[in-house]
Here is the input.
Amino acid sequence: MSRSEIEGEKRLKQFLFLVAGLVLILLISALYVVFAPVYWKGPKKVVEVRQGEGARLVAARLKETGVIKSAAAFRRLARLTGTDKKIKVGAYSFLSGVSLYQVVKHMASPKAGVVTLFVPEGATVKKIGGLVQSSLGVDSALFVAYCKSREFVRSQEVTAASMEGYLFPSSYEFYWKVPPEEVIEKMYAGFAATWKEVTADFPRRDTLDIVRIVTMASLIEAETGVDSERVLVSQVFHRRLKLGYPLQCDPTVIYAMGETKRLLSREDLKFRSPYNTYMNRGLPPGPICNVGKKALAAALAPDTTKYLYFVANGSGGHIFSQTLDQHNRAIYRLRRANR
Here is the structure.
């Protein structure tokens, strides 16, 4: 091999080595861009994808929010993985430390854009409206309006005046800014399934007064969160109804006053409303909150004790009494203990 050939081969090797080095650097850089975590201070970040938005707009919003470093890199990776065709309308949440790869993978997942809505037992339509707005981006006023619309309520085959009491407390999954009627329909389906389950052993289920039972269950739900007490509260209310005593249920007054107070004064107990069970005998016109399975079961099957009174014991439970004298002594002991 001549000297010139040796020199040529040497230069070729150097060139190939340089190209390989550049390719390696580019590969490492690409891997860094794709897999390097992006950190920020504070809580998770939420990025909304609106109807009709493509990968370019989504990438720009992700970068603007600080979730990714490069909008161009997101577009390329989304196009390479096919994610640009799978991005759904919704709200996407990201925690600090997420990588570009994880962002793209999350937005392409079957659950992408799905938001969990948790509704606790005892929540009112008004409170659920707030949860729906904060969790799903649905206007709370519109949600409440649907719940109170006679036409919509009748379309659900609910015989009550509103959906209060018939939105089953549970965890649900919805897409961001889902129509409010879809949320209500899904929650009512949960109630209907639970009603069918708790009344399965009743031989003449169709004759049950569902509005009366759900109203009773709502009072039980609002009074206690202690499972073992629900049947006792139910027994007290059933017995007071039978004897013609006013139910004197504080949550009915709170509901009548617009849920703005938790502690009631003597003057509050005189608040004029058909829901005030201090001023009116019998059950209120309808439910005062939305009920879970245990409250429904307790309303249908109260305990067999003969209590007529109960008072909060200050630790989440209640003291039950058969006579007014016992009740007053229980109140006296609690007041002394709290001095």
Observations:
- The CA atoms of residues 46 and 93 lie 4 Å apart.
